[in-house]
Design brief:
about 300 residues, paralog of FGE (formylglycine-generating enzyme)
């Protein structure tokens, strides 16, 4: 968030994040989660990403915060594909549950924890398009397949967020760190953790998938950074041969998630950043599911 590990905060702060994000109303009926069909049709719109090259990974000449497992950056060709303009909504996911094709998202935390009323009210609201959370990679993959889609690869996800070389005069130097450019992430562009440790820019959690138009990608894709973390269909491996020693060894082979989340600080808001659920294992004293968490969502591609 990044899953809890990427927050770069202590265990106590991580516990606050979890209390504020836990999805506790999984017993709500799928019927109650059903969305307006017209709204859901518009939210299911996909953006076509043209075939061509883009800069994959982190370029230290542009981004001073590159980590070893994000390098080396490479110019990579990606075939044309489509990607959801918005993160998958709670309503859309629960419609899949109602149809018997999907399983309910997880209550990712110890059910004995007293949330003390800290859980944000968006969990039970259906009048706005809130992102689904608490989904495992398998659940996200199943949902996309039911829709005749799939999860994007890491390279596809990064290209949709950064833009391809056809958009820039000098692809290597002009490709941005973030969807909107190279400036530091703020609450104007993304839903994040503030310096005062306020979740979701002070809103307590994730926000509707249509928020933050100032942070859309060059192709018009919303919330590629912040709001909820997003599963991709790629395993955590080196970007290039001979780089295995640069990786977090306990994460090798695990599915990657991208984009940081509403509980992540500005320093985590970078397209090239790579995370797995292994990151959360640093917080041994926090009851936690290592298959998903309270800020884990996704979008589909095809």
């Amino acid at each position: 968030m990044r899953n809890v590990a990427s927050l770069s905060i202590g265990v106590a702060a991580a516990a606050v994040l979890m209390a504020g994000c836990a999805s506790s109303d999984v017993d709500s009926t799928a019927a109650e989660q059903a969305a307006n069909p017209t709204l859901q049709t518009s939210l299911a719109e996909m953006i076509t990403i043209p075939a061509g090259d883009f800069i994959f990974g982190c370029n230290p000449a542009v981004d001073s915060n590159c980590l070893e497992d994000e390098m080396p950056h490479q110019r990579v060709f990606v075939d044309e594909f489509q990607i959801d303009q918005y993160e998958v909504t709670r309503e859309a996911y629960y419609a899949c549950v109602a149809a018997g094709d999907c399983s309910q998202p997880f209550d990712t935390f110890n059910p004995d924890i007293d949330l003390g009323g800290l859980a944000p009210d968006w969990q039970t609201r259906t009048n706005e398009p809130w992102p689904v959370i608490g989904v495992t990679w398998e659940q996200a993959n199943t949902f996309c397949q039911v829709q005749g889609k799939r999860l994007p690869t890491e390279q596809e996800w990064e290209k949709a967020a950064k833009g391809g070389c056809e958009l820039y005069n000098d692809c290597e130097s002009d490709t941005p760190i973030n969807p909107w450019g190279n400036t530091e992430a703020t609450c104007t562009e993304v839903v994040l953790m503030t310096e005062d440790q306020e979740l979701g820019c002070g809103e307590g959690g994730a926000q509707p998938v249509t928020v933050r138009p100032d942070g859309v990608s060059p192709y018009g894709v919303y919330n590629m950074i912040g709001n909820v973390s997003e599963w991709v269909d790629s395993e955590y491996q080196p970007h290039a041969e001979g780089q295995r020693d640069k990786l977090k060894q306990n994460a090798i082979g695990m599915k990657i998630n991208k984009g940081a989340c509403y509980g992540s600080f500005t320093t985590d808001m970078r397209i090239a950043a790579r995370y797995t659920m292994a990151d959360a294992q640093n917080y041994e004293d926090v009851p936690y599911s290592f298959e998903t968490d309270s800020a884990m969502g996704f979008r589909c591609a095809k």
